[in-house]
Request: fold
Amino acid sequence: MRLNNEANSKQATMNDDRITRIGKILRHTSLDEFPQFLNVFMGDMSIVGPRPHMLKHTDEYSKMINQFMVRQFLKPGITGWAQINGYRGEIKTIDDIRKRVEYDLWYLENWSLWFDTKILFLTIYKIIVGDKNAF
Reply:
C-alpha cells in the first residue's frame, strides 16, 4: 500500500486507491501473507487460527459481538476456518464479522490436527482457484 494516514484505522477495500499495482497482485495471490511466516517462526502466530484484526477494530467488534474476545484465547493464524469459508477481507456489514466469529469459535471448539491439515489444503486450493474476497 501507499503511505497513508489511515493505515491503522481503515481496512483495505475493493478498488482501494491506496493499493499499488504490485500490491494488487500480491493480495490476489495471497503472497502478501508470506512475511507473516516470520511471526510463526518467532511463535507469535500459528499457521492456522483466527485472523488478527487491527487493534481499533478489535475494540469496536468486542463491543458489538458478545463472544468476540473468546477468539483471543487462540494464537492468531495466517489462514483459518472462517477465511476458507469466504469470510476474509473487508468487513462490510455486522453480519460479516458475526459469521467470522462464528466460524472462529467453531474452529476453537472442534480443533484437531486433521482439521488444521484440511484447512491448509483448502487454503492452497483457494489460492489456486482464486477467491472473490482476495483483492
Summary: The mean pLDDT is 86. Residues 21-129 form one domain.
